[in-house]
């Protein structure tokens, strides 16, 4: 097979979509949308093999349109989703988003919320990877994905995963209280699931950091006391010890104690990039400096 043969398939698909014309059209020569879609699909596969993702994507859109006319919404959505994947491979992010959203609309109308949620999460990840896109765009789609997953009984795990991304991105755009409340809710949910209980301490640690980022030592201290009460194992965990130490240092505006607590924790368990960024914001609240105002990461 070749690109030339793919072009021939497209011509044949166009004929199938139009149907017979002229004197003999009444003899059952109407459009064959399903056959046209199959030809478009096969042509798209050839473009994929040739790494021509632009033409593959555009041909998959045509296949989807044919299945829409044929009356098969599920196949129409599938082809639009595949078109989105191909546009993404072609670095046409806007077009990928457009056709992904077409697929989501069809899936959601059919009650296939899990399928719609997966695509919305893909869009969110794509926006997050794009260095030219602000976090707000990824945040918007993670929220939409979470809402979609929430409507599916069997999508509790992906719903939580998306909400945690919403929390992290909310923090990046300065919505610290919103982020704290999400982390708290996910921590409480984890406590009631024997498979997820261990992860609760991570959520509570992040929630506490968020209250400190919000610049409220009183609320932060009260919140941490509540976390310890809700999860008795938290106090003796490394995350719990770190949270108590940095909250006390924050309340006392003791930068040295704050940094010492971080170094103690980081010497055993490396702080990830997100926590490091947020903890730098907390330190900046405690001791504003020209260095940190220049967005330098410094926890020394």
Automatic annotation (TrEMBL):
GO cellular component: SNARE complex; vacuolar membrane
Domain of life, source organism: Eukaryota
Keyword Protein transport recorded: yes
Keywords: ER-Golgi transport, Membrane, Protein transport, Transport
Membrane topology designation: Peripheral membrane protein
Membrane-spanning intervals of the chain: none
Pfam families: SNAP (PF14938)
Signal peptide: none
Localization: Membrane
Keyword Transport: yes
InterPro entries, per the entry: NSF_attach, TPR-like_helical_dom_sf
Family: Belongs to the SNAP family.
Function: Required for vesicular transport between the endoplasmic reticulum and the Golgi apparatus.
Name of the protein described by the UniProt record: Alpha-soluble NSF attachment protein
Phylogenetic placement of the source organism: Eukaryota, Sar, Alveolata, Perkinsozoa, Perkinsea
């Amino acid at each position: 097979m070749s690109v030339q043969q793919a072009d021939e398939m497209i011509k044949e698909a166009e004929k199938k979509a139009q149907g017979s014309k002229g004197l003999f059209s009444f003899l059952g020569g109407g459009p064959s949308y399903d056959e046209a879609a199959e030809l478009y699909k096969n042509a798209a596969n050839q473009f994929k093999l040739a790494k021509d993702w632009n033409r593959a994507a555009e041909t998959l859109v045509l296949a989807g349109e044919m299945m829409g006319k044929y009356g098969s919404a599920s196949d129409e959505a599938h082809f639009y989703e595949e078109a989105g994947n191909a546009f993404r491979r072609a670095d046409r992010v806007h077009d990928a988003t457009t056709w992904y959203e077409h697929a989501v609309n069809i899936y959601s109308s059919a009650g296939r919320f899990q399928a719609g949620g997966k695509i919305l999460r893909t869009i969110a990840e794509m926006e997050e990877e794009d260095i030219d896109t602000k976090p707000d765009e990824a945040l918007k789609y993670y929220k939409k994905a979470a809402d979609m997953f929430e409507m599916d009984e069997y999508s509790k795990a992906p719903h939580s995963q998306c909400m945690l991304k919403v929390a992290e991105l909310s923090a990046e755009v300065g919505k610290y209280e919103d982020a704290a409340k999400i982390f708290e809710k996910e921590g409480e949910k984890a406590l009631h699931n024997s498979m997820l209980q261990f992860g609760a301490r991570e959520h509570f640690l992040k929630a506490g950091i968020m209250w400190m980022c919000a610049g409220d030592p009183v609320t932060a201290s009260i919140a941490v006391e509540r976390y310890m009460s809700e999860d008795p194992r938290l106090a003796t965990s490394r995350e719990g010890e770190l949270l108590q130490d940095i909250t006390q240092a924050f309340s006392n505006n003791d930068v040295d104690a704050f940094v010492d607590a971080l170094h103690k924790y980081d010497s055993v368990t490396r702080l990830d990039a997100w926590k490091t960024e947020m903890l730098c914001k907390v330190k900046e609240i405690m001791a504003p400096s020209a260095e940190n105002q220049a967005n330098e990461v410094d926890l020394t």
